[in-house]
Amino acid sequence: QVQLVESGGGLVQAGGSLRLTCAASGLTFSSYNMGWFRQAPGKEREFVAVIRWSGVSTSYADSVKGRFTISRDNAKNTVYLQMNSLKPEDTAVYYCAAKDRLSNVYNYWGQGTQVTVSS
Predict the structure, then answer these.
(1) CA atoms within 13 A on the CB side of 117
(2) Quick one: pLDDT band at residue 101, thresholds 50, 70, 90?
């Protein structure tokens, strides 16, 4: 059974930092591209960042580029999202997701962790 468990969310002031962690189990982690998504109240879920299975390649949404960094540790089956210079508009539930490197869709999703940025 595949599980993705996010942690590290919380309440932070604008300009602050948080690091989200997603621990994966039940899958061959090193064969999966890992993504972070977020959903704010009343809005559609949106892409934040992705890191390829090898960890060599990353991609970011324009809204977070230069402020967020995605990384992974394949030995620990874990993916991270370092979020710096947080803004109130970053407030959302953040989800991690796993996509087989040969697939076009995300196969597995976590339950989400709340990030709230106060102004």
Answers:
(1) 18
(2) confident
